[in-house]
Amino acid sequence: MEVKKENKGKYDKRNKLNDLTGKEWLKLTASFWMSEKCADDRDAYNHPAPFLVKDIRKLISMFTKKEMRVLDPFCGSGTTLLASSILNRYGIGIDLNSEYRDLAIERLSKKEFQEFNDYEYFLGDSNDVLENLNNIDYVVTSPPYHNILKNKGSGIRKKNKKGFRNGSRIGVDYYSDLPNDLGNKESYDDFLQSFQLIMSKCFNALNNKKYCSIVISDFTVDKKEICVQGDIVRLMQEIGFEFVGTIALLQNNKPLYPFGYPYAYKINHHHQNIINFRKVIEE
Ligand SMILES: C[S@@+](CC[C@H](N)C(=O)[O-])C[C@H]1O[C@@H](n2cnc3c(N)ncnc32)[C@H](O)[C@@H]1O
């Protein structure tokens, strides 16, 4: 029987951004993606808010070529490092919490990836570590969502028969008690300012014409809905980044809560925004 070969399309030699064919590139320009789970996500379960590996693989494939250097200044369970290593990129991660560094190294070792050969993971405040980093080709990250894990008292997920990461959240599990943890900032404005400082150091470390993606959803502060996306775009533009578009990352397997019912409309956040930026400076 004749086996039909999948037509992956043609690679254009002028492509300086990534290793994709035109057909693969086009697919990833859609303004929404379905978030996709895979077996490699399971090992990150002990972190309150990890990325899913497949989602980050797609971003890294879009914004880098093989051997390029990918930075995550809020690296947590090391998903960015794992996705980078799988795709033959060199991942550089930073996080304040030593438990998350240990978790990430265990995850990466399981796949036989080795520190300093395939990736690096710095333990510390990104504010300090970033002073000594440069020559970065892509930044992909997700900061703490201000103090929502503490506020909602709801970091830990209930184990659910339907599958991991489908359960609702129960119990408190936030990142740390460290004052420089962005999840512990007193006010939303303090959070935005601290985040802006770290992202300005990422801007300095990033090579010209390269990209940066921030994954974050809108959330509530003092029970009021905040357009977090708008605030992030403004603070990144103040740094000098060019806004290049948002991808809605749909998470349609989360439970729906009747927050305001039957008195007022309250939204269920069932997507993350992947907010994309580019550094373009005149040379
Ligand atoms: C949303 S989580 C990132 C999860 C990560 N994307 C993953 O896949 O596991 C945010 C992380 O930022 C870290 N963090 C908070 N403030 C930090 C700071 N000033 N410097 C470095 N890391 C920080 C927290 O410890 C937490 O792991």
Counted by DSSP, the helix tally is 8
CATH architecture: 3-Layer(aba) Sandwich
Cofactors, ions and other ligands in the entry: S-adenosylmethionine
Per DSSP E runs of 2 or more residues, the count of β-strands stands at 10
Q: What's the N-to-C terminus distance?
A: 57 Å
Q: State the major sheet.
A: 8 strands, mixed
Gyration radius, in Å: 19 Å
Structural category: alpha/beta
- Share of helix, binned: 25-40%
The coarse overall form would be: globular
Q: Which regions have little confidence, pLDDT < 50, spanning 5+ residues?
A: 153-157, 160-164, 168-172
Which fold does the CATH topology refer to?
Answer: Rossmann fold
**Average pLDDT number:** 91
Please write the string of helix (H) and strand (E) elements: HEHEHEHEHEHHEEEHEE
Which strand-content bin applies to the residues? 15-25%
Give the tally of structural domains.
1
Name of the top-level CATH class: Alpha Beta
Oligomeric state of the chains in view: single chain
What is the name of the CATH superfamily?
Answer: Vaccinia Virus protein VP39
